[in-house]
Specification:
Elements lengths: L1 E3 L2 E8 L10 E10 L2 E2 L4 E7 L5 E6 L14 E7 L4 E11 L5 E11 L9 E4 L2 E3 L2 E7 L7 E5 L10 E4 L11 E4 L5 E7 L3 E8 L7 E4 L11 E4 L5 E7 L3 E8 L7 E4 L11 E4 L5 E7 L5 E8 L7 E4 L11 E4 L5 E7 L4 E8 L7 E4 L11 E4 L5 E4 L12 E4 L7 E4 L11 E4 L5 E7 L3 E8 L10 E4 L3 E11 L2 E14 L4 E6 L4 E6 L1 E6 L6 E5 L8 E6 L4 E6 L2 E6 L6 E5 L8 E6 L4 E6 L2 E6 L6 E5 L8 E6 L4 E6 L2 E6 L6 E5 L8 E6 L4 E6 L2 E6 L6 E5 L8 E6 L4 E6 L2 E6 L6 E5 L2
Length: 752
């Protein structure tokens, strides 16, 4: 643009997305020339007025380091972060004194409409099959998502947390509040660091870095307040304590940079340590809290206009009066309220409302998680709830992470040591990419660290996933872009049935496995004195073979063309195998009779479990259904199983001293049960809780075998008869006879 004389100024912006969008770092430029010769050494700056009328002044540089590429080429530039939707006004000013004095100005505007919210959807193929089932997923979301968080329904949420910032910029604090705004940034507000705070901080990279956006935010300094992120991108902050209890409501429409008081006295009584949620219909629901004098509250309030006005929807909500609880808004539009503290005790109950807080149903009077308060909880894209940390009834912090997949009716402990230190009075948010970010709180001192946990199954647009266990799986996809996020859940979408257990033999004389699976697989492996072992060494859902060589106390495992040798134990040890850590791969171990001790090998980790006596027989199984193999022994002298599960011991008197122990999931509940085979009467006696099943099968010289012969997820029994080298498999009223091997062979079973 030619403004005056021979000095020309052109100006404008460049955006990485072409059209400026929320969260873009745009480049503002001004090119100054005199008769096509670059003008160097000018003072160039831009005044930017955002849609809220706030003006920032930004200096533009021609030094080759601010995005202008070439130094002293007359192109003056700098970057600017877009944070609001609406119209921006730019006022360019350029002044020079060398080689002559000049002054030039220009005006420009641009509009930010923001990315259109994605609408998540997907397809998959196949939708059913036997394990291991490889399902291929195709994203069919509309409105151009830029990221994807997939939950395939078999996520365990057991991974450790990662510390992303040890000292996050904001002071160590507790009783602050934080929200995740639709575009994916985190806003942290207020709290207590030895004094009450009213600062606002923002992170745009999942908590890795933080920027102070307002050192004194307009609302009075406070802690134990709440905040919610609204569908329109605004933030609403409510109540708290700081030089008195509060009942005011504030709103920010620019990610915490500026704040407006929308209600000085909001109708609900002054309070702290309440909870609040933003609902899918755009309303806010506020619940409970404390307002002094041992006066805990159990009322529920609702606002339909971003906190400007409030309506009492339930004066006594059914759940006992409390504070320091949490609540989450679920994908189905319900609210789940979790634990807290009241005048009588610390709580561990869970409640749910399906009508915006008007009525409440108790989901669990004594949830699996211990009683706690000042914890945090988040709702995940897969419809589960994750609860983190808090103080127990003795006032001690913990680092436990619990999860519920049924709106708080039941809870599973998924991590007893989350990686981050035990704490309470922290904050946490669920992110568009499916991760959880946790911030600050009190351990022994006030913390300003930031931690992140990613439980999502995949982040690719069109992933594949292998299901290794039978089940009916819900699949969820959360698709997101700069405009926000949307999730889709498809219940019962993938059906995986059990592949049937097949038989085989190991022939010591020629040290060869002969595996039967329609066709015959012959694997020459080991030497004639080896003991056969089987397991899923690589986690692909198929059983592989191996041997344990006593003289050199070495496992030699075969996995396709891969051989793994693991020197472990001593020559008199008995080999055992199992998935000790729940990762879907079988690991090895030994039971040493002389010291009645299990030595379990898991990568570089060794676990020693002193258990039983020197005459016991080792057994393994998943006694509690947590996906991890535990150990136990069968003591013939007292015909009793002693099963070890962490610090829990289960003793099951069963059978007689000459019985042979067997284990299996007799009822398909995911837990391993015990049983015996009594050669004298060729009968299996299977124990399932208080139920006993007796199955007369085979003859007294048969060897017992177990497996899921029909793929229904239940373990059935069978025998291998060496004299006629034949398997006789029992499945209800059905008998399968498989002639296989030779009379000196050793039977093996697996899913080849």
């Amino acid at each position: 643009m030619n403004l005056n004389s021979s000095v020309y100024i052109t100006y404008g912006i460049n955006s990485p997305n072409g059209t400026p969008q929320i969260n873009d770092n745009i480049i503002i430029y001004s090119n100054i020339t005199d008769s096509d010769t670059p003008v160097r050494g000018a003072l160039v700056f831009t005044k930017i007025t955002n849609p809220n009328g706030v003006t920032d002044e930004i200096l533009l540089f021609d030094d080759g380091t601010h995005g202008d590429v070439i130094k002293n080429d007359g192109m003056y530039v700098n970057s600017y972060q877009i944070s609001l939707r609406g119209q921006y006004e730019l006022h360019f000013i350029a002044n020079g004194t060398t080689p002559y004095t000049f002054s030039r100005q220009g005006m420009s505007t641009f509009n930010v409409s923001g990315a259109v919210l994605p609408v998540a959807n997907f397809t998959a193929t196949p939708l059913s099959g036997t394990a291991p089932l490889i399902a291929r997923f195709t994203d069919t979301s509309t409105n151009t998502p830029s990221g994807w968080a997939w939950f395939f329904g078999d996520e365990t949420y057991t991974a450790p947390w990662t510390e992303v910032n040890v000292s996050s910029g904001w002071s160590g604090r507790q009783a602050h509040t934080s929200v995740m705004e639709p575009g994916g940034s985190i806003i942290l507000m207020g709290g207590y660091d030895g004094g009450y705070k009213n600062d606002t901080w923002r992170s745009m990279d999942n908590g890795a870095t933080w920027t102070l956006v307002n050192a004194s935010s307009g609302w009075s300094a406070r802690a134990d307040h709440t905040s919610v992120s609204m569908p329109d991108g605004s933030i609403v902050l409510m109540g708290g304590w700081g030089s008195g209890y509060k009942n005011d409501t504030w709103q920010s429409t620019d990610y915490g940079a500026t704040w407006t008081r929308v209600n000085e006295s909001s109708g609900w009584s002054v309070r702290e340590s309440h909870s609040s949620v933003s609902m899918p219909d755009g309303s806010i629901v506020l619940m409970g809290g404390y307002n002094g004098g041992n006066n805990y509250l159990n009322d529920t309030w609702r606002s339909k206009d971003n906190g400007a006005t409030w309506t009492l929807v339930n004066a006594s909500s059914g759940w006992s009066a409390r504070a320091d609880h949490t609540s989450v808004s679920m994908p189905d539009g319900s609210i789940v309220l979790i634990t807290g503290v009241g005048s009588d005790r610390v709580k561990n109950d869970t409640w749910r409302s399906k009508d915006n807080g008007a009525t409440w149903i108790q989901m669990n009077a004594s949830a699996g998680d211990s009683a706690r308060f000042v914890h945090t909880s988040v709702a995940m894209p897969d419809g589960s709830i994750v609860l983190m940390g808090g103080y127990d009834s003795g006032g001690f912090p913990n680092s436990y992470t619990w999860r519920s997949t049924d709106n708080g009716a039941t809870w599973t402990l998924v991590n007893t040591s989350a990686g981050c230190m035990a704490r309470g009075s922290h904050s946490s948010v669920a992110m568009p990419d499916g991760s959880i970010v946790l911030m600050g709180g009190r351990v022994k001192e006030l913390m300003n660290d930031t931690w992140r946990f990613q439980p999502a199954g995949a982040s690719a647009q069109n992933p594949s996933h292998t299901y290794t266990k039978p089940g009916i799986y819900q699949v969820a996809l959360q698709a997101y872009n700069a405009g926000g996020y949307d999730s889709m859940r498809k219940a019962g979408y993938i059906t995986v049935t059990s592949s049937t257990t097949k038989v085989g033999v190991f022939r010591p004389s020629v040290h060869t496995f002969y595996l039967k699976n329609g066709t015959t697989t012959t694997i020459n492996w080991g030497v004639s004195t080896d003991l056969p072992v089987t397991g899923d060494w690589n986690g692909d859902g198929r059983t592989d073979v191996g041997v344990f060589r006593n003289p050199t106390h070495t496992f030699i495992l075969k996995n396709g063309t891969t051989t793994t040798s693991i020197n472990w134990g001593t020559s008199t040890d008995l080999p055992v195998t199992g998935d000790w850590n729940g990762d879907g791969r079988t690991e090895v171990g030994v039971f040493r009779n002389s010291t009645h001790t299990f030595y379990l090998k898991n990568g570089t980790t060794t676990t020693s479990i002193n258990w039983g006596t020197s005459t016991d027989k080792p057994v393994t199984g998943d006694w509690n259904g947590d996906g991890r193999t535990e150990v136990g022994v069968f003591r013939p002298s007292v015909h009793t199983f002693y099963l070890k599960n962490g610090t829990t011991t289960t003793a099951i008197g069963w059978g007689v001293s000459t019985d042979k122990p067997v284990t299996g999931d007799w009822n398909g509940d995911g837990r391993t049960e015990v049983g015996v085979f009594r050669p004298s009467v060729h009968t299996f006696y299977l124990k399932n809780g208080t139920t006993t099943t007796a199955i007369s099968w085979g003859v007294s010289t048969d060897l017992p075998v177990t497996g899921d012969w029909n793929g229904d997820g239940r373990t059935e029994v069978g025998v291998f008869r060496p004299s006629v080298h034949t398997f006789y498999l029992k499945n209800g009223t059905t008998t399968t006879t498989i002639s296989w091997g030779a009379s000196t062979d050793l039977p093996v079973t697996g899913k080849w």
